[in-house]
UniProtKB/TrEMBL annotation, chain A:
<feature type="domain" description="NIF system FeS cluster assembly NifU C-terminal">
    <location>
        <begin position="226"/>
        <end position="291"/>
    </location>
</feature>
<protein>
    <recommendedName>
        <fullName>Nitrogen fixation protein NifU</fullName>
    </recommendedName>
</protein>
<feature type="binding site">
    <location>
        <position position="143"/>
    </location>
    <ligand>
        <name>[2Fe-2S] cluster</name>
    </ligand>
</feature>
<dbReference type="Pfam" id="PF04324">
    <property type="entry name" value="Fer2_BFD"/>
</dbReference>
<feature type="binding site">
    <location>
        <position position="181"/>
    </location>
    <ligand>
        <name>[2Fe-2S] cluster</name>
    </ligand>
</feature>
<dbReference type="GO" id="GO:0005506">
    <property type="term" value="F:iron ion binding"/>
</dbReference>
<comment type="similarity">
    <text>Belongs to the NifU family.</text>
</comment>
<feature type="binding site">
    <location>
        <position position="145"/>
    </location>
    <ligand>
        <name>[2Fe-2S] cluster</name>
    </ligand>
</feature>
<dbReference type="InterPro" id="IPR002871">
    <property type="entry name" value="NIF_FeS_clus_asmbl_NifU_N"/>
</dbReference>
TrEMBL record, chain B:
<comment type="subunit">
    <text>Homodimer.</text>
</comment>
<protein>
    <recommendedName>
        <fullName>Cysteine desulfurase</fullName>
        <ecNumber>2.8.1.7</ecNumber>
    </recommendedName>
</protein>
<keyword id="KW-0408">Iron</keyword>
<comment type="function">
    <text>Catalyzes the removal of elemental sulfur atoms from cysteine to produce alanine.</text>
</comment>
<comment type="similarity">
    <text>Belongs to the class-V pyridoxal-phosphate-dependent aminotransferase family. NifS/IscS subfamily.</text>
</comment>
<dbReference type="GO" id="GO:0031071">
    <property type="term" value="F:cysteine desulfurase activity"/>
</dbReference>
<dbReference type="InterPro" id="IPR020578">
    <property type="entry name" value="Aminotrans_V_PyrdxlP_BS"/>
</dbReference>
<dbReference type="GO" id="GO:0046872">
    <property type="term" value="F:metal ion binding"/>
</dbReference>
<dbReference type="InterPro" id="IPR015421">
    <property type="entry name" value="PyrdxlP-dep_Trfase_major"/>
</dbReference>
Amino acid sequence: MWDYTDKVMEFFYNPRNQGTITEKNEGEAITTGEVGSISCGDALRLHLKIDTATEIILDARFQTFGCASAIASSSALTELLVGKTLDEALSLTNKQIAEFLGGLPEEKMHCSVMGQEALEAAIFNYRGIPLDNHDDDEGALVCRCFGVSDARIRRIVSENGLTTAEQVTHYVKAGGGCGSCLTDIDDLIAEIVLEQETAVAAATKVIQSKTIPTTPLTNLQKITLIQQILEQEIKPMLAQDGGDVELFDIEGDLVKVILKGACGSCPSSTATLKMGIEARLQERISPTLTVIAV
Amino acid sequence: MRECIYLDNNATTQIDEEVLGAMMPYLTLYYGNPSSMHTFGGQVGRAVTTAREQVASLLGADASEIVFTSCGTEGDNAAIRGALAAQPNKRHIVTSEVEHPAVLNLCKNLEKQGYTVTYLSVNNQGQLDLSEVEASLTGNTALVSIMYANNETGVVFPVEKVGQLAKDYGAIFHVDAVQAVGKIPLNMQTSTIDLLTLSGHKIHAPKGIGALYVRRGTRFRPSMIGGHQERGRRAGTENVPGIVALGKAAELAQYHLANVSGERQLRDYLEQTILTLIPNTVVNGHPIQRLPNTTNIGFKYIEGEAILLSLNQYEICASSGSACTSGSLEPSHVLRAMGLPYSVLHGSIRFSLSRYTTQTQIDRVLEVLPGIIERLRALSPFNSDDSSWLQEQELAVLAK
């Protein structure tokens, strides 16, 4: 028997926000996202009601075909979404869904991934971004049994820090059918580890030289570098005042961070942001960087 | 102990009180070794002899043809490996796609060692095609190994007809009868079976004891090498309490075979009422050629683990071949071999009864089950075969 947390069982027996959304007022939009299939054994249709002016999610409902943890994960997802903007929602990871439930057995982590993917599908639908253009659908098909591409495996490996093919199977099912792609997944993980190590090495070199790099950095290098500077130089500085910062996302030269702890409510947080963090990153990485808090 | 309505008797059964009573002295007072020369051990040896006769009687066999094992899996392994080792020049095995993993995975393993294996298919009611059986046999076939009755669906194979074909081609015939023993009368005297596996914990004996029937004259080499026990066919000091328990359980099973129609009536009542009360529900497996205690029911559009955990809330124990319960990601190999649609595959539940099952228990299941199915269907995005999303999925599967 699975070792489900009490919260998983509570959300399975008494799920919140099941059903569909059909009615909306002026200035509101409804969108849906579908993932999974009846052949895979689990499927989720997520319904969102969105305030079109503010892009705030007003209501979230789910319909799920699947096991107890699939139903609980879907319900947890809807609880996490209401009140968030679409941009905030997009930053939600499968890990957060699992954490909300007090954790999931590793074999069941794919239930939380399904939630995160349905959310993306719903928002992409709303924004008119064709799902075909989604990163996950690009690249080569690795697992034929469950239709999983290398891009999707890459993303899940990076986001969850996975190290074995078996873990990948637990998260996105890839390799769980005939098993013929398990060695391909091993190779993919080795590749990702190598890429990360190279990026860290490049970033370390930049930090040590204390000068702005002459060649343009790849996104991965940029993220690694920013994270290193945050960890090594900025976080210790903020910690003295009980504050903290976390890198949220980067889009080109726009660096999004989350100010936490005392920084979150500090009246001089803008100064911290611009004078402290932005200036430091501009000095170290590129003068064109802009830092904002999200 | 938590009281429950136990409808998972194909997984394991409760130990009969008489069985427990019979074995208990051999865990306490009579701890001698049955092989010893002293009276203290000798009396234990006599208990083993009695148990061997009890098991032989249930099978219509001779006591010398019974080899005690530790479980069904050991019996299957010993039978298959033992028969192959005795015929080193023959390299072909015939079995079916719906066997228990104890046979199926062993055969897959043997393929790696150079054996060729034919996996017989089944139709959508879980039945073998006898012409396919015959077509698969050659002079190189060492062994035919099929199950008497399927653990998931209860479907019973035409064992004697398959055995006759095996004989015609000079192959040894092994039958995994773990689910059939105690539910179907067996008589080895008039049978074509050479090797037959049974397991104690499926017939109200404890776990850890089983037996293998080896027909007199059958070429068989032991897998477990050591002492002289079991006439040299399975070395190792006997599990005396288990053997005594199995003997008693066999005696009781033989007695209860006469009352098996009671189980069948309760099973039919459960099955028919579910089909009547709950729409979009199907029985998996042949309606007649089936064990009297088993029903496997597909509840469309919902998933098995969710049904089981919902039943569990009411202390009702059943099982499912759904992917989610096993963590294997693929649903039951038995139901897939039957070619059932995915809408049924993932939502199939097995109820397996025993002589302890009561009408009151079945009524309680029938009281809560419709509500459980309704609740889960209300949560599901699939609700009919017309749903376009679903149809695309099913078609995609058929195209594979």
